[in-house]
Amino acid sequence: MTLRLPAADGTLRTYRPRTDPLPPAPGAPLVSRTVLAAAHVVADPYADVSPDSPAAVDWDATLAFRRHLWSHGLGVAEAMDTAQRGMGLDWDGAAELIRRSAAEAKAVGGRIACGAGTDQLTGGTLAEIRAAYEEQLAVVEEAGARAILMASRALAAGAAGPEDYLEVYGHLLRQCAEPVILHWLGPMFDPALEGYWGSTDLDTATEVFLEVVAAHPDKVDGVKISLLDAGREVGLRRRLPLGVRCHTGDDFHYPELISGDEQGFSHALLGVFDPLGPTAARAVRLLDTGDVQGFRALLDPTVELSRHLFQPPTRFYKTGVVLLAWLAGHQSHFTMVGGLQSARSLPHLARAYELADGLGLFPDPALAEERMKTLLSLYGVTR
To answer: Shortest CA distance to 98 belongs to which of 146, 66, 140?
Structure first.
């Protein structure tokens, strides 16, 4: 069997899918690294909503996907940008997601951390921004989950300089019930976060970020760096206080950052581990045994797919993530909250399928092939 896949130049080429399925590999939690997959939400395809309506979520399918990740020993980073926070999923929907997912994690023994931000605001004073953070932190803490302090669009817009970041984050960290993960999300993921930590100069911003951590090391479990700059992450990682973990959010350089060097390594909190979950778990289990070479042999080939999914505009990587979840059989449709399934071109989606198939990521290659043919036919590609 073959498919005719569209290329970026408008031509069609023949592709022969592989036939061997992804072997199931559920297992116990990983040991040598903390690995959190930022998980997507599954839209309700039958809901009569418009792109700017509150998200209609298929809760059963959404929670089933989290059980899939937990079954492989991965943790879940919940209600993050992968779940379309600020791109279709509003705070009310995110709060419901946090409550439901945290309860499910407790029921099945899964590890979970949840994003707390300020997306109930479009702007505001520093006092209003602090209050918005506090509201979301309360929801996460009441759900029994670890909090991830997400970057705030409102704070990026309203802060006068570094001192405002120091004041807001210091206020929040002093009152957190448990240590949190601090999240630095770069503007390639969200243009509204340009100049976060009070400066567009990354060296200056890094110093402010590290000052926040150094002032409250007992309240910072870890940091999550999403700048797509491996050298900067390594430099920052080496300056963290003892006991504060660095979680890479670098979807371009994660194999080398997770494997580490003679001075340390990064843990992981990655959106690309949504589609790569089983493969990532197998790779880290090799790392658990000290087999760095085997870890890299499994994970290095996945970088081409990740770079494709996260190509500019990077924030639309969620479209490829949900496509692969549909092709892999984790959901029955390719529909996204906010209508975001239209955010990538057909050639982009076709290449994502080809790369994922080449890696053997699909548990049922025949199902993935048939679904890809359905998508192609909707765009007018004849068989």
So the answer is: 140
- The candidate with the shortest Cα–Cα distance to 348, out of 318, 308, 300, 299, is 308
Say which amino acid occupies 216: H
Q: What's the pLDDT score for residue 52? A: 86
Three-state DSSP at 103 gives helix
Q: Which spans in 109-161 are helix H?
A: 126-142, 153-158
Q: What pLDDT, in 10s, does the model give residues 217-271?
A: 999 999 999 999 999 999 999 999 999 999 999 999 999 999 999 999 999 999 9
Q: Could you report the per-residue pLDDT of 153-198, keeping only the tens digit for each?
A: 999 999 999 999 999 999 999 999 999 999 999 999 999 999 999 9
d(CA 186, CA 52): 25
Q: At CA 55, angle to CA 49 and CA 61, rounded to 5?
A: 105
Distance, CA of 340 to CA of 322 (rounded, Å): 10
List the beta strands (DSSP E) in the chain: 3-6, 12-15, 35-38, 75-78, 112-116, 146-149, 180-185, 220-226, 245-248, 267-270
